[in-house]
Specification:
about 170 residues, alpha+beta, Aminopeptidase, 5 helices, disordered N terminus, Ectoine_EctA
């Protein structure tokens, strides 16, 4: 599930400042956890899980920084049964950086950095218009088709959780 929200009390970075995108380090796990929690829309995992993610899935994840401050993250992994598919688990962007293309830059950078992938998958709830736009525009930028289907319905996710719609994008030409 992806989200594009965050802490509203942060000072908005200037557009001219350079965005640095790189793979996360273990120490970034705490900041990713805090940012996920601040979005108010992501399913927040334990702090421990973000630390593990930044250790074990750093090659398939990215963080974005301006002036050394973490503004966003994308966590992903290769599908074990289909290693040419990059699955995006979560996208989080600080509220101060929204509307500046940070999520799109991170997504493009991540896809470019993971060798041997030609498809991208992500699940999005029907009410998450920001993530729907993010993944739809990724497909447009890369001239790739998008298929959408329900991956997990309410009967599996439980009451109070929208269905998760699978966005499968690709093949993506490199």
């Amino acid at each position: 599930m992806a989200a594009l929200a965050g802490s509203p009390d942060r000072v908005r970075p200037k557009r001219g400042e350079q965005l640095m995108i790189g793979h996360p380090e273990v120490s970034d796990g705490v900041a990713c956890w805090r940012l996920a929690e601040a979005t108010g829309v992501l399913d927040v995992n334990s702090r421990y899980s973000y630390l593990l993610w930044c250790r074990d899935f750093a090659a398939t994840s990215v963080v974005a920084r301006r002036d050394g401050e973490l503004l966003g993250f994308v966590t992903g992994f290769r599908r074990p049964e289909e290693p040419s598919t990059l699955v995006v688990w979560q996208v989080g962007v600080d509220a101060a950086a929204r509307g500046q293309g940070v999520a799109a830059e991170m997504l493009d950078a991540l896809f470019d950095r993971v060798p041997g992938v030609d498809h991208l998958e992500a699940t999005v709830t029907p009410d998450n218009t920001g993530s729907i736009a993010l993944f739809s525009r990724f497909a447009e930028r890369h001239g790739a088709p998008v298929s959408r289907s329900e991956l997990f319905g309410v009967e599996l996710l439980g009451p109070g959780h929208e269905p998760e719609i699978l966005f499968r994008i690709g093949p993506v030409d490199r």
